Amino acid sequence: MIFRQLFDRESCTYTYLLGDPSVGRAALVDTVREHVGRDLGLLEELGLKLGAVLETHVHADHVTGAGELRRRTGATCHVPRLGGAPCADVPLGDGDVVRVGEIALHVLATPGHTSGCVSYLVSWGDAAADRVLTGDALLVRGCGRTDFQEGDAGTLWDSVHTRLFTLPDATRVYPAHDYKGMSVSTIGEEKRHNPRLGGARTRPEFIELMAALDLPAPAKIAEALPANRACGDAGTGPDTGPERM
After folding, report:
1. pTM (2 d.p.)
2. Which of 30, 103, 114, 192 is least buried, going by the fewest C-beta atoms within 10 A?
C-alpha cells in the first residue's frame, strides 16, 4: 500500500493519500481545495488514478477539493450520511466499507466534534487493520472542539472510548489536524497521554473542560460550511485562518 500524509499550513489540515499500486487506484481523505494541483501531481508521479475522495466530516475550517477532483478525475465523493452534504455520490454510515483495490476503509461512526463525524480504519489485503484516520474526533494529544455543528462533548467522549480506544494499542492514529508538529500517534499512546481524553480523566471532567474552552468561531466557517455541503463547489471567498481545535 502507498500511504502519504500531506499538509496544508494555512488550516493545519492533513490530507491522506492511499494507493494500491497493483491496480493503480487511489483514494484521498480530507482534501483541501487549494492543494488539488499538488494532489493530482503526486497521483500522476505515483502512477495512480483517483477513484474516491472521502471526508471525515463537513469541515468548518477549510474548503474541500472533492468537487473539483470529481470533475477532473471522475472520482466519487464519499461524505458521512449525517454530515448534511447532499452533494455526496456515496453517503457513508457506520459499518460501511470503501474499497480501493486491496485497500479497505472501514467506516466507524465517531460523532461528537460534529454530529456526522466518522473515522476510517484502514486494512490492506488480508492483513489486520493497522491504522485509523480519526478526523477531528481524536487528535494527537487532543481532540476536536464540540461547540458547533451539533457537537456534543459527552458524545465525543463516548465515541473515542467505545470506538477508538477499544482498537489495539498498536493501531496508528492519523488525525485530520495538528497545530504542534505532531503527525502520528498510536491508540495506546493516546489512552495514556491524551490530556483531554486519556489517563485518569473522567467523562464529567471532560464535559466540563470542553464547556470552558470559550474558543472563537472558526475564521472560515461562513465560507467553508456551505461550500463543503456542496463538496467544495459553493461559498467561495478569501482565505482567512485556521480553525483552532
Report:
1. 0.94
2. 192
Q: Kindly report, residue by residue over 15-48, the tens digit of the pLDDT.
A: 999 999 999 999 999 999 999 999 999 999 999 9
Distance CA 31, CA 13 (A): 8
Contact 15/175 with Cβ under 8 angstroms?
no
Q: Specify the amino acid at residue 160.
A: V
- DSSP three-state, residue 104: strand
Question: Which pLDDT band holds residue 234 (cuts at 50, 70, 90)?
Answer: low
Confirm whether 179 is domain-assigned: yes
Determine the Cα–Cα distance for residues 83 and 80; give it in Å rounded to an integer.
5
CB–CB of 111/143 below 8 Å? no
Cα–Cα distance for residue pair 126/118, rounded to 1 Å:
23
Q: What are phi and psi of 227, to 5 degrees?
A: -65, -45
- For the chain, the domain total comes to 1
Domain of residue 44, CATH code: 3.60.15.10
Residue 223 lies in a domain: no
Positions marked catalytic: 57, 59, 61-62, 113, 136, 177
Pairing verdict, β 103-109 and 118-124: antiparallel
Give the cell for residue 191: 489512552
Is residue 147 exposed (0-12), middle (13-18) or buried (19+ Cβ within 10 Å)?
A: middle
Q: Print the domain residue range for 137.
A: 2-217
Please indicate, yes or no, if residue 68 is contained in any of the structural domains: yes
What mean pLDDT is predicted for residues 145-170? 97
